[in-house]
Specification:
This protein has about 250 residues and is α/β, with parallel strands linked by helices. About 35% of the residues lie in helices and about 15% in strands.
Length: about 250
């Protein structure tokens, strides 16, 4: 609980208008309909059920490993096919609780959890953030952005920039081709679907970049972002998401 409060304080003191709004529209928990003291809070019993990720994990993609096999251990997938990115990390395992948090953000436009999400992500991506030159969100095609009016990855990147102090570039990557949704596609289909759809907006020679997104499912979007940034001269590409799929059945719907 204290971690939530620290995260919210980083966004500054709340205005009188915000406090008045809380009286009219009482803040509710990020994971239930329960009323809470202030936005971004989760009840202790639900907090304890969140699936935070940590070591031991694959040094490349961050997939949780069953046992500690040393700091350079990789999962079977990365051993068989080295990713285009240097590392990927996520704060949470994509389970029912993470699914609610992400769908409320992605489809409901709910922003009151952003300071807390940024704290979690900053902890998960501490190593990459400590070396990064800037953050950039996974891009959305302009037609989808016009229809939705926001990019949840950009919201997360902005919040993470505030929490970590690392600057962010909201337009360093562009989706130049609109493709079908990734939902329901296999790993190979996702890679083909996003291939050639993302480009870097300029040169970033020698930079270390962290790409921010909401969920890492198969890594296809991060791979496409990494390839685009490599072509733009980036030295290292790291991915950081709020959650990641750790079981094939936990696909974002």
């Amino acid at each position: 609980m204290s971690q939530s409060y620290r995260a919210i304080r980083r966004f500054g003191k709340r205005s009188t208008l915000s406090r008045v709004a809380d009286v009219i529209w009482p803040p509710r928990s990020l994971l239930s309909e329960a009323s809470v003291e202030r936005p971004g809070v989760i009840e202790p019993e639900l907090w304890g059920e969140l699936g935070f990720l940590g070591a031991p994990w694959c040094v490349r993609c961050g997939f949780p490993l069953p046992r500690d096999e040393g700091p350079e251990a990789v999962c079977g997938a990365c051993a068989g096919r080295e990713p285009a990115y240097d590392t990927a990390r996520a704060a949470l395992s994509y389970d029912d609780h993470a699914r609610k948090l992400i769908l409320d953000l992605k489809r409901g436009g709910r922003r009151d959890g952003l300071p807390v999400f940024a704290e979690w992500m900053a902890a998960a991506g501490r190593d990459a953030l400590g070396r990064a030159d800037f953050l950039t969100p996974a891009p959305m095609h302009w037609t989808r952005l016009a229809a939705r009016s926001f990019n949840q990855a950009a919201w997360l990147a902005q919040a993470l920039s505030r929490a970590s102090g690392v600057p962010w570039k909201p337009a360093a990557l562009r989706r130049v081709k609109r493709r079908r949704s990734q939902e329901g596609l296999s790993a190979s289909e996702r890679r083909r679907n996003v291939g050639g759809a993302i480009k870097a907006a300029g040169r970033f020679d020698g930079k270390i970049v962290v790409v921010v997104d909401d969920v890492l499912t198969t890594g296809a979007t991060l791979e496409a972002c990494a390839r685009a940034l490599r072509k733009a001269g980036v030295a290292e590409v790291h991915g950081l998401t709020l959650a990641r799929v750790v079981r094939p059945t936990d696909i974002l719907a």
